Model the fold of this input.
Amino acid sequence: MRVSTKHIVTGTGALFSYVFLLIPLAIVVGASFDDSASAYFRFPPEHLSLRWYRELPAKYWHGLGLSSMIALAAAALSTLLGAVAALGIAKGSLGRSALLETFFRLPLQVPFVVTGIVFLQFYYLLFDAWRLPLMGTYPGFVLAHLFFCIPYAAGAVGSVITDDLRRIENAGRIAGATEWRVFLRLTLPALKPGVFSGLFYAFIVSFGDVPVSVFLSTGGAVPLPVEIFQTLQFDFDPAVLSISSIVVVLSAVFIVLVQRLVGLDLILPGARR
Amino acid sequence: MMPSARRAYDAGLVAAFVASALLFLVPQFFFIRQSLLPNLSPGIVGDTISLDNYRAIVTDPFYWGVFGRTIALSAVSVAAGLALAFPTAYLLARIGSRVVRWLIVLLLISSFVSVVVKVLGLTLLLGTDGPVVRALRALSFGLWDVRLLHNDASVAIGLVQYTLPLLVMILFGVIQNVPPSLEEAAVVHGASDFRAFRRVLLPLLWPGTLAAALIAFNMNMGAFTSAVLLGGGKVLTVPIMIQRKIILETDYPNAAALALLLTLAVVVMNLAALKMRPAAVAATRAG
Done:
């Protein structure tokens, strides 16, 4: 292939992006093996040890568990809701309504920090009125995360409902398939990439969230990113390095498994296996 | 389609709409009401409705500065993020080699890790005991008191870290949808690569790029992790002011008013950007 200015520009830009994205992660993983005195970060590490893995407080494991459970539920529920909404908009009697599409994208216009305090106040109100315990509880986190996950999920599913799909469904009907069969054999398989990328987008947005969850966290229930944020803000603890490294390794294992078993185009449509 | 099938889709839409409307609108209603009530003392809210909280913010030049800085930081970070994301997404979408597949794996791994962890890495790298500062100090024989954190630039870098994986993923999808044959046709007919990019690719990518840029901009407008951890209390943005009002002052009504003004700023800027769209597309065609 001829090497042109175009290749140089895109190559340099991509190289820079990757260095920029990966260096902080490499540093965190590297620094986690340093056996330094507590309350002090050092990179590059001077004495290699697994000290901060052995002395990892249980609260970080709880945080990781809570974050994963919240992100799973928020991703599943928002994708279900988003898929039903996108199908209804594309195939319902109202026709493709731009107004409805805008409605399901509304949360994108609400800054995360605002979402956080909106739900904080709402949960206090519900508690005062009906003693509903949503502050710092699992359902409370899931509900607030659902709010900002819906646009991503609806958008991802909506993008795979194309005119081609409509033609294929009509071909199925002409060939004598029942509506139920058209849905099961033609519509659902076509939705698959949109559903999986919706799940993925919603999961990562929820899993990494600080600005919403920080307002909804109470002593007993703190998602991992909020736990790390509060540790960094108030009292340094080198254990955040080891739990962060564990998250990096777990994500890597998950992504490589997805790539090997089903192919990446399932979560990033267009990515080749 | 059979009417019964259409009715099933309609029923689904109604259910999704009602659930979303409850989630979107009910909490916001009480929130707006809260912003109109007076703050009597920390945690105690009165019950007379007025616009006093808004008046206090709008007439205070300090807040104008904070809003200006928040918008500027968000916009600059989006521009920098797009400048990085565009070539990256293009490379990932257009070159189908084994290496690119692994680059996508790395991108997805990095998207899984919360921005807090990335910010932690940046503070280790750029902090006073970090390798970069030590090297610069050694190079200047200790004459230069290097400080790379706790300024606007470090906050902007943190915001780019926050949105870059998502920007690359969205732009990847957008570029995938444009067949490479269109660019090839332009080049075959004598257009330079740059001209093919500007006249063929850019007009087709513009709507998707704008949507991605607005998502990133809105994320930046509501984020405070990077401003808190990399700004070190020296870079004040609207989200930080809201967080302080809630956590330190327990002043919910004023925080609510500030939050609604922030939302208003976001909505206005999004509408303005969408209005710009036809003009910008026309500009890529001219010349």
